[in-house]
Amino acid sequence: MIEVADILRQHGAAYRATHTLLPSQERALSDIQNCRTEFFGGHVAQCDHCGHLRYAYHSCRNRHCHKCHGEQAEDWLERQRSLLFPVPHFLVTFTLPAELRQLAFGHQKDVYGALLRGTAASVLKLGADPRCLGATPTVLAVLHTWTRAMLYHPDAHLLVIAGGLVPGGHRWMATRNTAFLVPVRARSVIFRAKMRDALKVLGLQDQVSAQVWRKPWVVHCQHAGSGSKVLEYLARYVFRVAIANSRIEALDHGRVTFRFRDNHTQQIHHVCLSADEFILRFLHHVLPMGFPKVRHYGLARSASGPDREHARRLLPEPVNSTAPDTPSPHAVTTDSAVESLPMCPLCHLGHLHVIRTLRPRLKFPP
Ligand SMILES: [Zn+2]
Ligand SMILES: [Zn+2]
Q: Number of folded domains in the chain?
């Protein structure tokens, strides 16, 4: 199977020679190219029966790497499931208008942060309005920047509970409106206003055409059931970047072919790009270092833990602290870098003992 790492190894140097990379992109490129190689160090183990030597290398742990994070994704899902309530949830998607994409790419930390904060503030403001809900719900916000063709298309996905804790905390309030808190138009207007305020504070409003503040902004809301399935879907945005290795079909004469399924027609499309264009599209989705792409607001904030547990007790029926749709499997460790005394794969009689530690290289390769 062809992997993103193979494409970066074969064509990363040519890409570097013709493009200026942001520090976060340089780091991601280097980490993914070198994941599980001697670059990151590791150890040598020897069989105590036949003397067979086995080399094991550490993973890069870069959040944009496709080979890392299998175990982390399971842990993340477990933690998020514990925030769900046994009531309906909604998935609300706020899309940044096309006119703001260039600005967002040029000021990623600021605009992505404003997008997540602004969308959550829109939901919480509407939730607090007694005409809508009059309570504080839990909000999990995830930033997502790619289309299935790997194009740059930032939006925020919010998993929101259909109810909340009233001010003072004496009552649980369920949403009366099955179409969520309020009409779509109100969500759109508040989202747009929050973004305009945020860009003003950042001093970026002059870089945006005035026309964007007059057109309707796209907000989509759908039922999310217990929320558990939507969490699995969101985990793909959190622990996968732009494309899964399984979608890459060929790397041939400097061209990459991959497929994607159109959400509306369910048709499979094949995209063929130069390796250069593929890497360009991939790197558009590398986030600034340290930028948290998942955030919790309202009752989901870690500081709201006591209120959240209080809210559970106020629900009409006694409930468990978690409500998964399906039992979650135990985390499977895929990183074989450090194991204690495994069987020898050659003789199947002896055990492997670590005889030497391989130090990581201190500098990134060119
Ligand atoms: Zn052996
Ligand atoms: Zn890695």
A: 2
Q: How far is the CA of 53 from the centre of ligand 1 (A)?
A: 9
**How far is it, in rounded angstroms, from Cα 115 to Cα 126?**
17
| In the block, residue with structure tokens 């399935």 | 229
> Which ligand has the nearest atom to the CA of 70?
2
* 205's tokens: 């409003």
**pLDDT of 93-151, one tens digit each?**
999 999 999 999 999 999 999 999 999 998 898 888 888 888 899 999 999 999 888 99
What is the CA(47)–ligand 1 centre distance, in A? 5
The pLDDT of residue 73? 82
| Contact partners, residue 265, CB within 8 Å, separation at least 6 | none
Distance CA 200, CA 253 (A): 47
- Res 329: pLDDT: 36
180 in the same domain as 31: no
Is the Cβ–Cβ distance between 71 and 197 less than 8 Å? no
- Which residues in the chain land under pLDDT 70? 177-183, 317-340, 362-366
Range of the domain at 174: 70-241+291-314
Does 282 map to a domain?
no
CA 303 to chain CA centroid, nearest Å: 22
Could you tell me the distance, in angstroms and rounded to a whole number, from the CA of residue 64 to the centre of ligand 2? 8
285, 242 contact by CB (below 8 A): yes
How many CB atoms lie under 10 A from the CB of residue 215? 11
Question: Which residues, in sequence order, are CB contacts of 160 under 8 Å at separation 6+?
Answer: 89, 90, 91, 92, 123, 137, 138, 139, 140, 180
Starting from the CA of residue 40, give the closest ligand: 2
Give residue 341 CA to ligand 1 midpoint distance, Å. Answer: 12
Instruction: With 0.90 as the threshold, say if the pTM is over it.
Output: no
Q: Which ligand sits closest to the CA of 67?
A: 2
